[in-house]
Amino acid sequence: MGTIEVVLGDITAERVDAIVTAANESLLGGGGVDGAIHRAAGPRLAEAGSKLAPCEPGKAVATPAFDLAPVKYVIHTVGPVWEGGEQGEDEILTSCYLSSLELAEELGVESIAFPAIATGIYGFPTARAARLAIRAVRSLPVIDRIRLVAFDEETCQLLAAELAGPA
Ligand code: APR
Predict the structure, then answer these.
(1) What are phi and psi of 58, to 5 degrees?
(2) Distance, CA 167 to ligand 1 centroid (Å)?
(3) Catalytic residue list
(4) Please, are residues 20 and 114 in contact by the beta-carbon 8 Å criterion?
(5) Which domains does the chain have, with CATH numbers?
(6) DSSP state of 155
(7) In angstroms, rounded to a whole number, what is the distance separating the alpha carbons of residues 18 and 100?
(8) Would you say 77 and 117 are in contact if contact means Cβ atoms under 8 Å apart?
């Protein structure tokens, strides 16, 4: 059984085997955390991503992490755009976490960092996303070290509260 941690910080500073990015279907990069990860990994990340695109919402694909070394992989997953909660958004977000964990296990990853997928540009309510994220990573304990990296205090507190709650 591995560990699950909630931390506040910049995910590009994480020293883990795999960093998950909240991508869009083109895998060419964008704003938010995707932009930060592409800037840190360098232009080869978009080149590699474009060969695997399009990536459907809820699915995950892996590329090398290039200039983010010693990180080995970037796992690209596409979250749901929030449309009010009746369009399967919860299931798609849960699938982002589970697909990323399953792929990481296949790759022999021992530590992984997730951003708060879909809670920025895609507008997914942060408290609801935090509950789904903790529930998803608890349901699939296949990676030794799982780090949920919040970029702001509110997201950090919401994730920490969910992690402190009953399994
Ligand atoms: N480290 C960790 N978390 C970060 C960082 C960072 N350097 N930068 C932003 N975040 C956080 C945001 O504060 C938010 O909590 O990542 C979370 C997800 O927000 P977005 O990056 O906007 O991702 P998302 O809501 O899934 O929207 C995806 O935005 O960047 C584009 O190409 C991406 O089209 C896609 C869309």
Answers:
(1) 90, -15
(2) 26
(3) 34
(4) yes
(5) 3-164 (3.40.220.10)
(6) H
(7) 10
(8) yes
CA of 18 to the centre of ligand 1 (A): 17
Centre of ligand 1 to C-alpha 10, Å, is 11
Q: CA dist 48 to 29, 88, 123, 146, 161, Å?
A: 11, 29, 27, 25, 37
- List pLDDT tens digits, range 82-141: 999 999 999 999 999 999 999 999 999 999 999 999 999 999 999 999 999 999 999 999
pLDDT above 70: percentage of residues in the chain? 99
Cβ pair 138, 43 in contact under 8 A: no
Sequential DSSP letters for 48-97: HHHTT----TT-EEEEE-GGGTT--EEEEEEPPPPSSS-SSHHHHHHHHH
Instruction: Give the largest Cα separation in the chain, rounded.
Output: 42
24 lines ligand 1 (CB under 6 A): yes
